[in-house]
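ok trying this again, last paste got cut off
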Amino acid sequence: MSWRLQADRALQAEVSLRCGAASATWPLPFLEPRPVRPAEYLPAPRPVATEMLVGAHHCPLWEPDQPQMWDNVLKHPERTPALGYYAQNNPEVADWETTWAIEHGISFFIYCWYRSSQGGAVTTRYGSAIHDALFKSRYASQMKFTIMWENQNPGTSGVADERDLLDNLLPYWLDSYFRHPSYLKVDNKPVLFIYRPEFLVRDLGSVAAVNAAFAKMRAACQAKGFDGLWLLGEYRGLDPKRLTLMKELGLDYTFAYVWPVPNSPPPQVASDLQMSYLEKTQEMGILPQVVTVSQAWSGWRDEGSIWKIPPPEFEALLRRAKAFCQGLPEGELGRRLLLLDNWNEWGEGHYLAPYREYGFGYLDAVRRVFAPAAPAHEDLLPEDIGRGPYDQPFRAHGDFRVEMGLVEGVLGQEGTAAQEGHIGVVALFVGVYNLIRGPGRALDVHTGDRLALGIGGGSLHDGEVHATFRHQVDVAVVLPRLQLQAVGQGLVPRVDHGQGDRAALQALEHIAAVAVGDRRGVVAVRDDQHPGQGLLGLGVAHEAVQAGGQSRKDQGQQKQQARDTVTGGHLMHSWWKARIPGCARRG
């Protein structure tokens, strides 16, 4: 079941979903309506002049074969990017990012860069955003880029020794990046960010060895025609000992990938704390800094402090940060560069690229602050010119990943319904469990007076998935051995019938019937090995619960029925699958 929402004018709307006793509301911005004018390709971007260089950290985790990276976004549909659940290896995706960035005053991206092994020829992970998308994109020449070396994993992402750094890693960077015409260079020096510079002491043996290696890197860059190499180290704190260590290592500047903001504060507190970090770092005077401004944070599993600065307050913070940079000493890199956190960390909760909740709100704030003289412009979405979608690889891995995300999004990570006394919606996509969560992940379901659907939080022993059901206080169902067995590319469940199992399954049928009678929709379990003996597989209890089994030939139809009818009048998975763009004009 799906709807297409339309608005005859630009507005900030809200959309609400009720699912039994649970409900949720999300903001949904509508841009000014405009007719669709199909185009062969997106038009050439129109960059704006800025008063200083503004860059944004870029998270390149959205590989076509890594759909699980979107799991946390599926629980937060308000985060849906304007590009959808895109594959980052697409050059057209890179051109949209380039267009949106440079038309709003962002002139370079800092790509997280991952080495997959050390001690030999360089191999990388998550490199398609640069090599397959940016380098092959039509508008690559208009966008600058740099890299942040993610060297935090011991034994794989760093260097084995100085020779590995100077003979393997640095030549790779020089040939692949530094000499590229779009790589960011300031005063003819490539700019390199290092995520964990202190780990190089472990790799190279001492602080002095790191300092000497950095000097050799700068000399090697000069031998290739550059005037040196800017080295910036990541640190997000105020410990003078850490800053002193970074200075002794030979780094030129410190920067933060994100600022730690504790206790889930309101926007003003989050803004004030960031400015406090900047001011106190400057007061210590140990190592010069390049300013980072953070927009939000939530953690990949919504852990820890969760906070967000909406666009109006973010614009005010940008103005404060800009004024701070203008007060730094003449000649410092920090007076000429400012970093934004983050372009597209969708899973970790910080992002500036256009998306469903605020549309172009953050980018428009950047444009107003750093390109105040820019003329009026019009923001385009892919749908405006008949382009996209860009999520085909994600879809190829199974729509059920989206559907499970919907259940988590409505019921919460632990899945507890909001009101006692309701069975709610029980959606067990066991038959495609391998596609949803990957092998080796446990699925525990416990329902009592309140519905609880926990994903990945239970125990898994020899392939068993344990589930316990209770409807109010009068029906108790225990399935001691609900196993998963491989069938083709997926998994289907198998029940080992033991003493009392049949009664338990009949009780489960009763629970399903009660829920269906209350029009809440249940995906039940049916047994195709023992016709008439209970529930296993992907049976859909929608209008009635029918006992009896089905052949394997029929299972595909049953799964499709699950996809089509797991709505029970309420669970609207097709709507959530977001054929609505990230920020809608018409819905």
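PB: full thing came through this time. Residues 399-587 have pLDDT under 50 and may be disordered.
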